[in-house]
Amino acid sequence: MSTPPRASSQPGFWDVRYEREDHLFGTAPNAFVAAEASRISPNSDVVALGAGEGRTLLWLARTHGHRGTAVDFSGRALATAARWAQEYEVPLDTVRADVRTWRPERRWDAALVTFLQLLPEERAGLYRLLRRIVRPGGWILGEWFRPAHLHGPYDRLGPNRADRMVPPTEVRAAFAQEQQARCTAADVNLREGPRLKGHAAVVRSIVQRA
Ligand SMILES: C[S@@+](CC[C@H](N)C(=O)[O-])C[C@H]1O[C@@H](n2cnc3c(N)ncnc32)[C@H](O)[C@@H]1O
């Protein structure tokens, strides 16, 4: 008998959450990406996987002149991202797709992935996709909860299962062949909207493609 897919693996689960609450993950950019943004040359093409409402891409467009592509399987999240892009008068492409099966034909100068919750067997495909869609010399910036979050002195936020959190060793191994790959476990105070606020155990990675 096959196991039914988990709710949070379905776009409908996320559509309901985005409909119920505005700015689910805040309007400010992801703090880690904002801190590392100077690595990406001005006016670059940047893609975000599981982009949500596009908060980080829109900030990059406004502050660094980047052209963003927001990929998410939630139509609600992308509709908000497109509306904000219009309000801010910045370019933004939205792609409604499941990153587990999305196979674009082109490459970008940089890719972002922040707090995307995939299962272990799905993440190998995510890392392959990231390596494929970023040009040589381009950047991949990623942040996820790490499993220690469930058992340490942290606030209750993020996924409620360890298998949707990412061990640092896994990210290190996935990008070991790249030009640069720094992957660190960090204990941080997140202040990124109502669902991402508090003391958290995360893993952060900065990868430059070979
Ligand atoms: C925790 S939210 C983070 C959103 C955004 N990265 C941010 O930091 O604000 C996770 C996002 O990933 C999207 N998502 C989850 N699984 C996905 C999949 N398989 N394909 C595309 N999007 C997915 C959800 O719709 C949701 O917008």
Task: Provide structural commentary.
This protein is an alpha/beta fold. It has a single domain (8-208), classed as Vaccinia Virus protein VP39 (Rossmann fold). The protein has six helices and seven strands; from the N terminus they run H-H-E-H-E-H-E-E-H-E-H-E-E. The protein has helices at 11-20, 31-36, 55-64, 75-88, 120-133, 168-174, and strands spanning 45-49, 67-72, 92-96, 108-114, 134-145, 180-191, 197-208. A seven-stranded mixed beta sheet has the order 3-2-1-4-5-7-6. The longest helix has 14 residues, at 75-88. The protein is globular, with a radius of gyration of 16 Å. The mean pLDDT is 95. S-adenosylmethionine binds next to loops.
